[in-house]
User: What shape does this take?
Amino acid sequence: MKSKIWVLTIALVLSALTGWASNKVSPGKIQPPQQKTEARIDVAFCLDTTGSMSGLIEGAKQKIWTIVNTVAAAKPKPVLRIALVAYRDQGDDYVTRVIPFTSDLEAMYTQLRAFSAGGGGDEPEHVNRALQEAVGQLQWSKTPGALKVLYLVGDAPPHLDYRDGYDYRKASRQAAGSGIIINTIQCGQTSSTGEIWKEIARLAEGKYAAIDQSGGMIAINSPYDRELTRLSSELNKTYVAYGDSGAAAQKAQETNDFAAASLGATTSAERAVSKSSGLYKNESWDLVDAVNTKTVALDKMKPADMPAELRGKPVAQQRAYLEEQGKERSRLQQQIQTLSAKRDGYVAEESKKLGKKSKDAFDAQVLQTLQDQGKEKGIQFQK
Assistant: This one.
């Protein structure tokens, strides 16, 4: 009897060991992160807006859509939020201006366009306060596995003589403890800035880069830009404004189109591509998006909130009209995506001719760090 029990015990132990061995990760092999249904991405820019930064600020307005388009192509499907923290110094028009996280790309672009360079004087700026507010005041995602990246962009070191409780080292350590990566981008060649920018990146597990004072952004026009801009204008006709703020928001969409076009064909084309992506949602003012996302129900809308062209009509007729607008929008967005793929190929070939110069620009540094740091979260940026 005892021998049978021993045989049974040994068999069970061997079975357990076999199961353990089959599930054991081989030495030196890192298991890839589990596939997620969507990628949560928070990107914030902490930006020096003093007079010496005018070139970078205007360049950022040109290249923000390039950055958005790269994120839009991420796998898994991305959910992007962007925040802005502008900073100057004591005695200027403002010390900091904090623009909270938003997934509303139109609202974000409107805020970014409003920034201009001014103020400054002495070399140091209030980097300490800006960094601490970017880390502590912005409502960063609490979703496990979210990619949370803060870019500190400036050309001057922080004031170390203020005794107001703000401290870049404290903010950097707080960021690291909260899973927020701080990448620092130095504009220009001031050595005192470089030393501290490198320290901040090290403390917050990010990367440091030095670029030209103006940002070094390069615009590559393509044969497809004009048609992409035209399709963008056609796309606007598929939006159906509703509610108190609908008309104003639709007007802002047109204004932002005009502003992008004034910055050049490249910016206008990139914005068109963004408007064709899954990140471009306007349910707060567009009834097509609002119905598709179930933000509003047609049968429960107040008559005053209903667009004039649909007011008083049966719900079935309203729904049919919105569906037609949605189909036309999808058709135009598909045309934009097709042209965008051709444009990407053209731009890639032209970029090769520029060599290292194209890789040292502000937007190139942002995209490279997003790509590298996204991999650690199981996010692949395809563009």
User: Anything to note?
Assistant: The chain is about 50% helix and 15% strand. Residues 38-217+361-381 form a domain with the Rossmann fold fold (CATH 3.40.50.410). The CA atoms of residues 131 and 216 lie 24 Å apart. Residues 1-33 have pLDDT under 50 and may be disordered.
